[in-house]
């Protein structure tokens, strides 16, 4: 046999197999999506997301304390207001007494080492459930929507968020948000993580149930990317990079590994995030429950695929599990 034909010598040993990975999963790569509700003492199980709950701010120490001890380094907050008056412009989104702003302050106080990102969108706060403001005919009114999203982001930054992450997919919101952060004095102390390539996926169901954020009519196909749209994703990534995004995100993750690769190629000097969304998480659990594979092995296999594709940051509901598994 030719010398060049023999590869197995390079990975016959478990340690040598580790060396074959370009990037190994570490705790600092994990960002934990968490749901904050406006009942301060709540701890409500989310049936569609195994092991996940909606938490009130009075329970954050009980919830996050053990995870911080295990090495939790970042969270991304999703507000789930159940006792507020939703309206056409998502007024409750940046209510100073609302769950997100209260949670930013509480987590800063309780866990000063934890990096706090905030998802910025209006769908959890609008009475129509869309991610932006609407025209009279029910279509998205892009410009005022982008302006409102930027306004919410600046208010989160003022409350102490380390990072704002607009998941709305409005055109031009990154430029507006970056300009707003700079003008408000936060351009150099608040990260702008753009959900640049976010697809109109069928994998958001459990989240929408958890956050009560499904659109009251229609869908999000006119502002989230078509699943087959590789060119649009590449253009959105280039656009957001040019508009001042500090981190580029692809979402969902597993069905879009090629887009993660595109992002790494198009924005080689930016951290690349990917979001293993609620439906991916639920799907992996369902397969393990059905005996198709071992849960831990599959969770690592999916994370390794995202790292191999070029991700440097993974938003995942598996974060608490990985904190245990990476310790072992
Ligand atoms: N801003 C929209 C929420 C959005 C998807 C959607 O419901 O369209 C995601 C949150 N950023 C869902 C995330 C998930 O499914 O885990
Ligand atoms: Zn939204």
Automatic annotation (TrEMBL):
Record flagged with keyword Lyase: yes
Q: Which GO terms describe its molecular function?
A: porphobilinogen synthase activity; zinc ion binding
Q: Which GO terms describe its biological process?
A: protoporphyrinogen IX biosynthetic process
Q: What does this protein do?
A: Catalyzes an early step in the biosynthesis of tetrapyrroles. Binds two molecules of 5-aminolevulinate per subunit, each at a distinct site, and catalyzes their condensation to form porphobilinogen.
Q: In which pathway does it act?
A: Porphyrin-containing compound metabolism; protoporphyrin-IX biosynthesis; coproporphyrinogen-III from 5-aminolevulinate: step 1/4
Q: Which named protein is this?
A: Delta-aminolevulinic acid dehydratase
What the entry lists under SMART domains is as follows: ALAD
Which residues are noted in the entry as 5-aminolevulinate 2-binding? 278, 317
Which EC numbers does the record give?
4.2.1.24
Residues that bind 5-aminolevulinate 1: 208, 220
Q: Which residues form the active site?
A: 198, 251
Provide the species name: Tetrapyrgos nigripes
Family listed: Belongs to the ALAD family.
Q: Which reaction does it catalyse?
A: 2 5-aminolevulinate = porphobilinogen + 2 H2O + H(+)
């Amino acid at each position: 046999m030719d010398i060049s034909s023999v590869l197995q010598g390079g990975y016959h040993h478990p340690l040598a197999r580790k060396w074959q990975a370009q990037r190994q999963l570490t705790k600092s790569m994990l960002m934990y999506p968490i749901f904050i509700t406006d009942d301060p003492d709540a701890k409500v199980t989310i049936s569609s997301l195994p092991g996940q709950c909606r938490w009130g701010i009075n329970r954050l120490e009980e919830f996050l304390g053990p995870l911080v001890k295990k090495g939790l380094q970042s969270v991304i907050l999703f507000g789930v207001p159940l006792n507020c008056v939703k309206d056409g412009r998502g007024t409750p989104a940046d209510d100073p007494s609302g769950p997100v702003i209260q949670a930013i302050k509480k987590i800063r106080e309780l866990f000063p080492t934890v990096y706090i990102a905030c998802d910025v969108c209006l769908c959890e706060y609008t009475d129509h459930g869309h991610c932006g403001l609407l025209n009279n005919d029910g279509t998205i009114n892009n410009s005022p929507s982008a302006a409102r999203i930027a306004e919410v982001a600046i208010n989160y930054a003022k409350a102490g968020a380390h990072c704002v992450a607009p998941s709305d997919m409005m055109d031009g919101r990154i430029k507006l948000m970056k300009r707003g952060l700079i003008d408000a004095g936060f351009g150099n102390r608040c990260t702008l993580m753009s959900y640049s390539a976010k697809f109109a996926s069928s994998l958001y169901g459990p989240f929408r149930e958890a956050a009560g954020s499904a659109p009251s009519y229609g869908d999000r196909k006119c502002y989230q990317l078509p699943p087959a749209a590789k060119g649009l994703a590449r253009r959105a990534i280039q656009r957001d990079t040019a508009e001042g995004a500090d981190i580029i995100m692809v979402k969902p993750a597993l069905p879009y590994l090629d887009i993660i690769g595109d992002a790494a190629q198009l924005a080689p000097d930016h951290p690349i995030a990917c979001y293993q969304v609620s439906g991916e998480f639920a799907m992996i659990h369902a397969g393990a429950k059905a005996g198709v594979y071992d849960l831990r092995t599959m969770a690592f296999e999916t994370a390794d695929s995202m790292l191999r594709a070029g991700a440097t940051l993974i938003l995942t509901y598996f974060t608490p599990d990985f904190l245990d598994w990476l310790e072992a």
